[in-house]
Write a structure and sequence with these properties.
By secondary structure, this protein is mainly beta. It contains one helix and 22 strands.
C-alpha cells in the first residue's frame, strides 16, 4: 500500500474562519458533493474565560481535484453546548455521513474538568441543507462514559454497511500520573459499537486494536474504508508521555485490516507515510481521514503541532 503525498492543501492563515481563528484546522473530514468536496475541521479560538481554547467546527469547499479552495465557512456549523453540557467547551472532531437526504454529524464534545483538563462524549447533529449547518439531536450525548468505558469517549467515525451503522471511536481509562510527570496524562485506544438507527448504540466495552508501542500506547481518530476487497482502518498513535515535543514520541499514522469489521490485524508496515524533512509534517502525522472520490482513495491528515498549520492530502497509488 503506497501513498503519494500531495502536500498541504489548507492553511488556516489564508481564510477568515469563525471566531477569529488563525491557527489550527484539526481532524479534517470529507463529504463528497456534486462538483466539490466539503472538508470539515475543528478550529481553535481563545475564549474570555482564562484564555483557554474552544474548538468550533468549520469547513472549506474544494474542487474535486483538490487543486484549489472554493471558499470556507465564516460561521460555526454546529453550536457548542450550554453551561454544563458535554460539549460546552468545544467540538473536536465531527465526522459526517449521508443518510438519505440528510447529513448526520457525529460530534466529539469537550468539557473541562477540575482535577484533569477535560472529558468528552459523542453527540449527534443533523443537517437538512447539505451540510452547511447542523441542528443537535438533543442536548446530551448518544455515547458517553459507561461502566466499562469510564472516560474520554470521543473521536467517532461512522460507516453504514448493509443494515447496520458501525462506529469506531476511542475511550480512556482513568487518568494516570506517570513517574516524573507533574500532571496526570490520559490513556485511550479504539473501540467499536453498532446501531440499527444511528442513535441507539450497542458497544462491547473493550479495545479492539493491538498496541504496537506497548500497553501505554494511545490511539486516536480511526477511519475505515473498503479497499481492494478488505476493510482498512487508519488511525494515529503515540507514546503516553512526552509526546508534545519529544522526538519520535508524537503521533504517527497506524493501519489495521479486517474482513468482517469485527476482528482487526495490526499492519503498520504497509503504510509508509512519513513526514517530509523541514516541512509542515516533519515531526508529526496525525488525525487521518480516508475516503473515496472519483475512483481514487485519498487521505486527509494533520501535521506538526496537532494541526496548527492546517492539513494535507495523500493519494493511494496502485
Amino acid at each position: 500500500m503506497r501513498w503519494e503525498k500531495l502536500g498541504r492543501i489548507f492553511d488556516p492563515r489564508d481564510f477568515a474562519l469563525p471566531h477569529g481563528c488563525r491557527e489550527f484546522a484539526q481532524a479534517p473530514q470529507a463529504l463528497v458533493c456534486d462538483g466539490f468536496v466539503r472538508i470539515y475541521f475543528s478550529t481553535r479560538s481563545v475564549d474570555a474565560e482564562g484564555g483557554k481554547f474552544r474548538s468550533h467546527v468549520a469547513y472549506v469547499d474544494m474542487k474535486r481535484d483538490f487543486s484549489a479552495a472554493l471558499g470556507a465557512s465564516a460561521h460555526t456549523v454546529v453550536p457548542l453546548g450550554a453551561p454544563g453540557a458535554f460539549d460546552e467547551h468545544g467540538i473536536f472532531p465531527m465526522n459526517v455521513v449521508r443518510d438519505g437526504a440528510r447529513v448526520l454529524g457525529y460530534t466529539s464534545g469537550v468539557n473541562r474538568r477540575v482535577s484533569v483538563p477535560v472529558d468528552s462524549a459523542i453527540g449527534l447533529a443533523v443537517s437538512d441543507d447539505g451540510g452547511r449547518s447542523f441542528r443537535k439531536d438533543g442536548d446530551g450525548p448518544v455515547l458517553g462514559p459507561a461502566l466499562h468505558e469510564p472516560c474520554l469517549v470521543a473521536d467517532p467515525f461512522v460507516l453504514r454497511h448493509e443494515d447496520l451503522f458501525h462506529m469506531w471511536y476511542i475511550f480512556g481509562t482513568p487518568w494516570r500520573l506517570y513517574p516524573g510527570q507533574a500532571a496526570p496524562e490520559r490513556l485511550y485506544r479504539i473501540a467499536h459499537a453498532s446501531s440499527r438507527d444511528g442513535r441507539e448504540w450497542s458497544r462491547a466495552g473493550r479495545w479492539i486494536v493491538e498496541p504496537a508501542l506497548g500497553p501505554t500506547e494511545c490511539q486516536a481518530l480511526p477511519t475505515v474504508a473498503a479497499i481492494g476487497g478488505r476493510f482498512h482502518m487508519f488511525f494515529c498513535f503515540r507514546e503516553a508521555t512526552d509526546f508534545r515535543t519529544g522526538a519520535g514520541r508524537g503521533y504517527r499514522i497506524g493501519h489495521a485490516v479486517s474482513d468482517d469489521l469485527a476482528r482487526w490485524t495490526r499492519d503498520d508496515a504497509t503504510l509508509p507515510l512519513a513526514g517530509s524533512v523541514g516541512e509542515w509534517d516533519s515531526d508529526m502525522q496525525c488525525y487521518p481521514h480516508v475516503f473515496h472520490c472519483d475512483g481514487e482513495v485519498f487521505m486527509l491528515y494533520n501535521g506538526n503541532a496537532f494541526g496548527r498549520h492546517g492539513f494535507g492530502l495523500a493519494r493511494l497509488v496502485g
